[in-house]
Structures are given as C-alpha cells and as structure tokens.
Amino acid sequence: MKIVTWNVNGIRSVAKKGLHEFWEQAQPDILCLQETKAHPDLLTPELVCPQGWHSYWSSAERAGYSGVATFTRGAPTQIQHGINIPKFDAEGRVVVTVFDAFTLFNIYFPNGGSGDERHRFKQEFLRRLRHHLQRRLEKGERLVIVGDYNIAYLDHDVYDPKALNNESGFLPEERQWFRDFLSDGFIDTFRHFHPNAGDRYTWWAYYENARLGNRGWRIDHICVSKNLESALRGAEILDQQEGSDHCPVLVELAL
C-alpha cells in the first residue's frame, strides 16, 4: 500500500506541470492533494476523477482557495467531508476516507502567518483537531494523517532554525503542539526511517527563489497511529519532483 500526499498549489496549474506524469510514475494506491484551489464542478472529468479511480473532494466556499482531494484505487467504506466544525469545514480543509484497514485524514492545515486573526484560527484548528483525533485513538482506530501541516517541529526541519524561530509554522507553541500530537500516539513516518537526516524539505518559498539554495521547510507530513507501526515499510520525501512550491511525500504500508 503506497500513499502519496502533495500540496499542489493549484490543481489546474500542476496539471500543466507534470501531475499526470508523476501520478503514472509513482503508482500510488492513494493520492492526496492539498490546496487544489478549485471546485470539481469547474474542472474536466478527467481531472476530477481519472478512469479507474475514486475521488473525494472538499472545496472552500471562497473561490480559488484551499481545498483537498483524495484519489483512491479502492472505494472506502465511508467518506466524511470536514470534521463537523463549520468555520473550518467552510475552507475545504479535510477529507476523511474510511477503509477496512485504517482511516485516512487528508488535511490542509491553516497558515497562520497573515496576522493575529489567522494565527488564532490556526491554533484553534490545531486544538480541536487534536481533540477529535484523540477520541478516535481511544476507540482503537488505526489512523493515517497526511497533508500540509504547515508546521516544522524539529530544528533540522528548517534551513535556519535560529532565524525562523518567530515565524508562523515554526513558533514554539506550534512545535509543542506537534510534539504533543506525537505523544498522543502518532509516528512521524519520515523521521521513523530517517531520524537524523538534514536538509530534507518539502516546501520552498517561491518569492525567495528558495529551492535553488535548498532553503526549505519540512511541513508536509504523513503520520500514522502507533498501532500501524508494524505495517510501516518505508517513507520518503520526493524532493526532485517539481510543479509546485511543495514536493510530494510518500509512505509504504504492508496492509
């Protein structure tokens, strides 16, 4: 079972920059996209749901903003759009697909960098999402949480931890949230296989032309609940793939 996640920064844009070629080469069983920036009603049928796939979308009420899409080879037994919190669900941030072997959350976490209001919005999202996931863990569910978390939590997850200490996405309270989230019973799959790897990032700022110098952040993650640890077979950052300011991330599970 191969799961791939990618913040595409606009699905129409990345479709012109190699999405289909990447999809064919990577051969995922599940592909999760964030920041689709499009309502499926405005896209071609081939992009909404390619032949041989099932697709599940959550789009923002605001046009051209946010949005997630999950593509699966096999049909899930249950689908949930959002987490039943209207102000978050209105931004098209979550699709939940339930399979026999696990429950998958495809999430585009808020960016809190545009001011105090969005910072508070992000912090509330983090608190309430964690509480939602805790309840599911208590029931013994096997969970896979993929997406653009908009948080780097380790010093070697950013190119300059001292300079970025006061930047949204690397703030002390956000890093602590991630550590607490892991302590609830989750595994950061990339660090599980590459605990000390440095200079491995998933996002580079366009406006800084940062990718050329690899001045990046590792903010796109795949985390799994500890009851899936024995199924883990590999995790990688596909940082050679272009087409967005983010790159894809994958995990392989023996399920």
Describe this structure in words.
This protein has 255 residues and is of the alpha+beta class. 24% of the residues lie in helices and 26% in strands. The protein has seven helices and 14 strands. It has helices spanning 11-15, 19-26, 45-48, 86-89, 116-138, 172-183, 189-193, and strands spanning 2-7, 30-34, 54-58, 68-72, 78-81, 94-98, 103-108, 143-148, 186-188, 203-204, 216-217, 220-225, 232-237, 249-253. The strands form three sheets. The chain has a six-stranded mixed beta sheet. A six-stranded mixed beta sheet has the order 5-6-7-8-12-9. The longest helix is centred in the middle third of the chain and has 23 residues, at 116-138. The chain is globular, with a radius of gyration of 17 Å. The chain starts with a strand and ends with a strand.
Shape: globular
> Could you give the count of β-strands?
14
What is the spatial order of strands in the main beta sheet? Answer: 3-4-2-1-14-13
The fraction of residues in strands falls at 25-35%
What is the residue-averaged pLDDT? 97
Largest sheet: 6 strands, mixed
List the helices and strands in order.
Answer: EHHEHEEEHEEHEHEHEEEEE
C-alpha end-to-end distance: 6 Å
Rg, please?
17 Å
Q: Class by helix and strand content?
A: alpha+beta
| Helix content bin | 10-25%
Low-pLDDT stretches: none
- Number of helices, where a helix is a run of at least 4 consecutive DSSP H or I residues: 7
Topology, pairings included?
Blueprint: E1 2-7, H1 11-15, H2 19-26, E2 30-34, H3 45-48, E3 54-58, E4 68-72, E5 78-81, H4 86-89, E6 94-98, E7 103-108, H5 116-138, E8 143-148, H6 172-183, E9 186-188, H7 189-193, E10 203-204, E11 216-217, E12 220-225, E13 232-237, E14 249-253
Parallel strand pairs: 1-2, 7-8
Antiparallel strand pairs: 1-14, 2-4, 3-4, 5-6, 6-7, 8-12, 9-12, 10-11, 13-14
